[in-house]
Amino acid sequence: MSNPLFYVGDGELAPASAGATVVVSGAEARHAAQVMRLSPGERVDVADGSGRRVSGIVHSAAPDRVEVTVETVHDEPAPYPELVLVQALAKGDRDVLAIQTATELGLDAVHPWQAERSIVRWKGDKAAKAVAKWEGALLSAAKQARRTRVPRTEKVLDGVGVASVCGPGSLVLVLHEDARQSLGDAVAEAGMLTGETVERVERIVLVVGPEGGISPAETAALSEAGGRPVLLGHHVLRSSTAGPAAVAVLQQLLGRFGPRP
């Protein structure tokens, strides 16, 4: 069974080495000491959310401070290409469910998308609270999956502005039930499975629309900017299911499902 994982701030593990002491504080310390009731001698992992993980033994545990004696340090390289999800806002927290599940499957970043047909709208103070909720969901899902890296929340997109995700270095795949080409064929055609890409693809962007679907104007904007409509399968999936399913397919195609390094 894998060790429980706790996070510290970005860069806090930079000086970590075998024999050193790492301190976990704040909400993470409370969770470790009060919820999980960790005690001295137990093994844990600590990550900084951006690639470094240390494994060690709990030296002391209090609600405001957990000290861990480092045994090993591991640096996880940034994924290439990274997987980005453009997730349309959806009612009933289906958008939050989508990004949580996609994070467990290997998502690297997410754009909230207030699509033309999104029922949910983010306005004023509500937008800041909603973004914070998404960031919390990404963090908790990354922790559940024992991920060293926590997915980023990118800028909120609006309507046809979604086309801004297209550009050099991006392979943009628009999940659409009327598409003729499968997701797998589009990835193969781009040379991602053989390394024969004409242009360097630094990120694969998956665009998922709301319950009412992507509007004709948004579809046109994405296509004109270089986005490729793709079909995930024979069934029409919910907004909460399509993104995670596509991430899982991509992870398999890219050979990322396998033993831990």
TrEMBL record:
A GO molecular-function annotation: methyltransferase activity
Pfam families found in the cross-reference section: Methyltrans_RNA, PUA_4
SUPFAM superfamilies registered for this protein in UniProt: alpha/beta knot, PUA domain-like
GO term, biological process aspect, one: methylation
UniProt KW keywords: Cytoplasm, Methyltransferase, rRNA processing, S-adenosyl-L-methionine, Transferase
Limits of the Ribosomal RNA small subunit methyltransferase E PUA-like domain: 25-70
General function of this protein: Specifically methylates the N3 position of the uracil ring of uridine 1498 (m3U1498) in 16S rRNA. Acts on the fully assembled 30S ribosomal subunit.
Protein known as: Ribosomal RNA small subunit methyltransferase E
Source organism per UniProt: Citricoccus zhacaiensis
Lineage: Bacteria, Bacillati, Actinomycetota, Actinomycetes, Micrococcales
